[in-house]
Write a structure and sequence with these properties.
Its EC number is 3.5.2.7. By secondary structure, the chain is of the alpha/beta class. It is built from 18 helices and 16 strands.
């Protein structure tokens, strides 16, 4: 196949396809056994999409007359799909390192929240920060996530709680979408907490009557494109009825439903998500058996967040029960001032150790299933012809090292590639050549 192409990755010891038949997601037995090709190569075209995947000798023969902007010899290395982080809060000012000490001393998340800390502390600092300040810290965080292998990231607003600051955060996310080599799924999370001086009902009315119409207007004018709507459905925050009203109003203007539920108290959030046709529900530490059954039936993804359960010493989500009952299980880092983790490999490790997932299940959850949770599994989450060329190359002969090694991924990951373009290259591999 002559012609010019963007990238050839050749002679990989293992090419981890994850899935190879156009699956939207993997669950039950399918998530437990991933597609892996030994001694394989792949080609990414100038459009950033994968053109061919196969045995190294077959690809070599098929593309014998072709030219490439970049060729990387992956002998002794493994190639995986770019990781997908299905839940983050990466735009904010004012860290909460002081609260970590309080948590270690036994103060609960809601006790800190009710005393004016937690989300309220971050809201105060984020409201004061300029758009430029927020963008610069956000960009730095995205770069750290990218170095750890994440190529598609869900990014929420939610530290404004008023229209002005929520829009400021969404503009920052939009700017990163346009200016950086990284995939972003943006989420409006104005119902992250009840603003000081308002009741939950007043906050709900404000969101439905003011925030969402403005988002619709900005979408129509092309200024801001929001993908998802989120609500923190929790005791003392937004109850089930308020959550239903906000999510339905978001769905009515074309947003995917992807919300926080059943984290600290059983709220029947999973049942609500299934009822409303939610794309995903996150957290689910306190999910009911009925909620698990409803999510499996509705093909509503469960975005599990091992870092949160670990750092807040919460009960672990019932990952095994969800997997066995046919729920589409995805993973996210929940990066935020309360759970400061950029690394999806560490998230996968915690999911395996603390939530009893297998390494295959964890990788499926951090690739194809996380992409499904964002409505992106047609373009992301696996290495298949026609999909976007988002890839991670690791310096190991077995892909499982990405999960087996706890931390230290800066020494393991050689290349991170988005749309066939090298966006991160380990120092030992030389410098990134220009295109």
């Amino acid at each position: 196949m002559a012609g010019r192409h963007r990238l050839l990755l050749e002679n990989a010891q293992q090419l981890v396809l994850v899935c190879g038949r156009g699956e939207e997601y993997l669950r039950q037995e399918a998530a437990a056994s991933l597609a892996v090709l030994p001694e394989a190569s792949l080609v990414v075209g100038l459009d950033g999409c994968i053109k061919a995947v196969g045995q190294a000798d077959v690809i070599r023969s098929q593309f014998s007359g072709a030219t490439f902007e970049r060729i990387i010899d992956c002998s002794g290395k493994c190639v995986l799909p770019g990781l997908v982080d299905a839940h983050t809060h990466p735009v904010w000012a004012g860290d909460r390192v002081h609260e970590f000490a309080m948590k270690l001393a036994g103060v609960s998340y809601m006790e800190i929240h009710q005393a004016g800390g937690g989300i309220h502390f971050t809201v105060e600092h984020t409201r004061k920060a300029t758009e430029e300040e927020l963008f610069n810290t956000f960009k730095h965080r995205l770069e750290r996530m990218r170095r750890a292998g994440s190529t598609l990231i869900e990014c929420k607003s939610g530290y404004g709680l008023n229209l002005e600051t929520e829009l400021k955060m969404l503009r920052v996310i939009e700017r990163a979408k346009q200016s950086m080599d990284i995939g972003i799924s943006s989420t409006y999370c104005g119902a992250h907490s009840v603003p000081k001086g308002k009741t939950a009902t007043e906050a709900t009315d404000d969101i439905i009557n003011n925030h969402l119409p403005k988002l619709k207007e900005l979408k129509l004018s092309g200024e801001i494109h929001v993908n998802n709507i989120d609500v923190f459905c929790e005791k003392g925050v937004f109850d089930l009825d308020s959550t239903r009203r906000i999510l339905q109003a978001g769905k009515d203007i074309g947003l995917q439903i992807n919300f926080h539920g059943d984290e600290l108290h059983p709220m029947k959030s999973a049942e609500l998500g299934a009822e409303l046709g939610a794309r995903a529900v996150s957290h689910l530490e306190e999910v009911s058996d009925e909620g698990i059954t409803a999510m499996a039936r509705a093909k509503c993804a469960a975005v599990l967040l091992p870092t949160t359960a670990y750092m807040l010493r919460l009960k672990q989500p019932q990952a095994r029960k969800m997997l066995e009952e046919g729920v589409i299980v995805a993973l996210g880092s929940d990066f935020n001032p309360n759970a400061y983790c950029f690394s999806m490999p560490m998230v996968m490790h915690l999911a395996c150790v603390n939530m009893k997932m297998s390494m295959n299940e964890a990788l499926a959850a951090a690739t194809i299933n996380a992409a499904y949770a964002l409505g992106k599994s047609d373009t992301h989450g696996s290495i298949e012809t026609g999909k976007q060329g988002d890839l991670v190359v690791i310096n190991s002969s077995r892909w499982e090292h990405l999960i087996y090694q706890f931390g230290g991924h800066e020494a393991l990951i050689d290349y991170v590639i988005i749309k066939g373009k090298v966006v991160y290259q380990n120092e030992r591999c030389g410098t990134i050549s220009s295109y």
